[in-house]
Amino acid sequence: MEASPIYCLPNDTFYQIFLSLPLRQIMICRCVCKLFDQIISSPFFIDLISIRPPLHLIALRPPHHHHHHHSHERLSAAAAANSCLHVFDPDQNQWLRFPLDFLPFRFPHPVASSLGLVYLWGDSPESPESNKSLVVCNPLTRQFRVLPQLGSAWSRHGSVLVDSANRVMVLTELAALYFSGSNQWSKFSSNLPSKPRSPVLVSKSVYALCDVGSPWRSQWKLFACTITDLKSSQNWGRLERHEWGDVFDILKRPRLVRGTGNQILMVGGLKSSFSLTASCSTILILRLDLDTLEWDEAGRMPVQMFQCFQGSSKFKVFGGGDRICFSAKRMGMMALWDRCSGKAEWRWICGVPGYSDGLYRGFVFEARFTALLP
Known about the structure:
CATH topology of the largest domain: Neuraminidase
Strand content: 35-45%
Number of domains: 2
Low-confidence stretches: 66-78
Radius of gyration: 22 Å
Mean pLDDT: 85
Number of strands: 24
């Protein structure tokens, strides 16, 4: 049988055709046939397409699995379900799946992303209980690289923070690991007053909420530390101003989310009073400008939407920039705050993959054909 005429076309012709397509269509073309996949995955084409603006997506984190308490059949089913990255495209209002079957790890657990690259924990096939590895990959190019090995304790208790392809931090209450492209991690003492809640890495500084209150009453404060100070074993500093007043007392269970530019967002339930048993009237989003150190209100959830969260004892917050997602147990959908168009919009995200109890976690994923540096 004669070969199809399409195989006679030179690569330059394919490059021109694919470069005329939107990024979403290029991603679809990779799945058409092996020829298209080879051309789009070639280093030359990746270099051409890498300057394209990314797709701003929201990725889900799969739940942790405890290997000792599951049968082989359940583990196989869970591994199959988690062999892909589930992402939501807010602009197209649809769910997408990026296969992770190119990774030689069981139970890949994506935790963070930056510049088109996804960072995930992977179980070593030889010794899954002690050899956790932090892996960086690009689901679009199917390239990956294993960072220097870490113990499983870091994957269980550490928060992974990234802000560029070569700046990675794993932070716990007692210590921090820092990786900047070398062959090893640098370890520093963190000496935080409590377990850091929702830490974020912005520019050259790390910010986290810590509870400095008593066992019967939480009192959250904002702590900050530059990477330079962290390396020199300097203590974290409490970031506060007299002008802020009771900004940390009006929110119940506050969390930090990285904002746009040099901003961070603080999200929590808006207390109806300062009593210990105070109920919440809605969910409030506050914004801190790190240049001026001034707070302002970025948004608050509509009362009708918040009523769906009132029956849950806790909710999860994730996202970044101008998009934040909210989830709660047994809701089957997520709420989305979207300010990308310049005007705040609240809407529901339906059809969420049902591999957890509804307390979805996730991160922002800017999908692009970024080449993975050695």
